[in-house]
Write a structure and sequence with these properties.
Order of helices and strands: HHHEEHEHEEEEHEEEEHEHEEH
Shape: elongated
Radius of gyration: 24 Å
Distance between the termini: 59 Å
Strand order of the largest sheet: 4-3-5-14-6
C-alpha cells in the first residue's frame, strides 16, 4: 500500500465528509476510495471512521492519526514546491471560482492581464453561481458576494455591490422617473425568474422590509438578459450593479429609486491559510486585490 496515497485519501474523506465527495475531489471511483480506507484500517488494526447513512466522521483514533497525516502531507507538499521552485518564483496552476456574472464582467478581463504579467502561472477559472466547496473541488481562491459564514478561511474585502433599479434614458423620458416604490405599479418591469412571473419586488433597508407591487411585462431567466432588455427600452430592471455598470458608464442605463436600495453586498476574496504562502498565490492576491477594489468601489 502506498502510504502517502492512503493518507491523502483519508484526508479527503475527512475534509469532504463522505466517501462519494472524496471520490469526486480525488477524481477516483467511489469503490476505490472505500477500498483504500478499508485497507488502511485493516493494516492499522483500528477503526478510523464512524459511518452513518448520512455522514462519515472520525473516531478518536482517527482524529489522532489524521492530524499526523496532515503534517506529513504538508511537509511532502512543501518539499515538492520547494524543489519545483514555487517558493522562489511565482509559477504553477491556480484554481479560482467566482459568481458567473462577476467573473465575466470583472475577473475574466483582469485574468488575461494577470497571465501576461505572470507567464509562469496558469489559471483554472470556475465561473458559477453555485457555492463551490473549495476544499472538495481543489479551489485555491474564491470570490464571494454577500455575508460570509464563520470559517477558518482568510478573507479580504475588495468591494461592494448594489442592487439597483435601472432603465434606459429613452424609456424614462417617455414614461417618467419613478419617485416612490408605489410608482412601480404603473411602469413596465423586467423580471427575472425561471418558473413564474413575479408580481412584486422586495426591498429591505435598515431592517425594514417593503413589498412593492409591480407589473411585469417581460420575464427572463438571467439578469444579463434583463439588462439587455432594459437597454432596449423594455422597462425597469432590478439587478446587481456590476451587471449594468458598463451600460451605465456608456449612458445606456440610468439608476432610479436609489434611496430605497437595500444595503450593499460585500465582496471578498477568500482562501485557506497556508504557511508559507506559495508565491503564485501571493502574486495573484497582490495583483488582483487592488484592481478588483478599483472596479468594485461604490460611487
Amino acid at each position: 500500500m502506498d502510504r502517502l496515497e492512503a493518507m491523502s485519501v483519508i484526508i479527503a474523506v475527512t475534509e469532504t465528509g463522505s466517501i462519494s465527495a472524496a471520490s469526486r475531489r480525488l477524481n477516483s471511483p467511489v469503490a476505490t476510495v472505500s477500498r483504500k480506507v478499508a485497507e488502511l484500517e485493516s493494516r492499522l488494526k483500528a477503526q478510523l471512521f464512524q459511518r452513518t447513512s448520512r455522514r462519515i466522521t472520525l473516531t478518536d483514533a482517527g482524529r489522532a492519526y489524521i492530524d499526523a497525516c496532515k503534517r506529513i502531507i504538508e511537509q511532502v507538499d512543501d518539499a515538492e514546491r520547494e524543489v519545483s521552485g514555487e517558493y522562489r518564483v511565482p509559477k504553477g496552476e491556480l484554481a479560482v471560482t467566482t459568481p458567473w456574472g462577476l467573473g465575466h464582467t470583472h475577473l475574466l478581463p483582469l485574468a488575461t492581464e494577470f497571465l501576461e504579467a505572470y507567464p509562469d502561472i496558469s489559471l483554472r477559472l470556475m465561473l458559477t453561481d453555485r457555492v463551490v466547496n473549495t476544499s472538495e473541488e481543489n479551489i485555491d481562491i474564491a470570490i464571494r458576494v454577500g455575508t460570509l459564514p464563520d470559517s477558518n478561511m482568510i478573507a479580504t474585502r475588495v468591494g461592494s455591490i448594489r442592487i439597483v433599479v435601472c432603465a434606459s434614458p429613452a424609456y424614462l423620458n417617455a414614461r417618467g422617473y419613478p419617485k416612490q416604490l408605489g410608482d412601480l405599479a404603473t411602469h413596465d418591469c423586467i423580471t427575472i425568474d425561471d418558473h413564474a412571473i413575479p408580481a412584486a419586488w422586495r426591498f429591505v433597508r435598515g431592517g425594514r422590509a417593503r413589498i412593492a407591487p409591480i407589473r411585469s411585462r417581460l420575464c427572463v431567466n438571467t439578469s444579463e438578459a434583463a439588462v439587455l432588455a432594459a437597454i432596449e427600452g423594455a422597462g425597469l430592471a432590478r439587478v446587481m450593479s456590476y451587471k449594468m455598470d458598463a451600460a451605465k458608464r456608456a449612458g445606456k442605463l440610468s439608476i432610479v429609486l436609489e434611496e430605497f436600495e437595500p444595503e450593499s453586498l460585500p465582496v471578498h476574496i477568500i482562501y485557506a491559510p497556508r504557511k508559507p504562502v506559495p508565491l503564485k498565490l501571493r502574486a495573484f492576491l497582490n495583483w488582483m486585490t487592488p484592481r478588483l477594489k478599483a472596479r468594485l468601489t461604490l460611487p
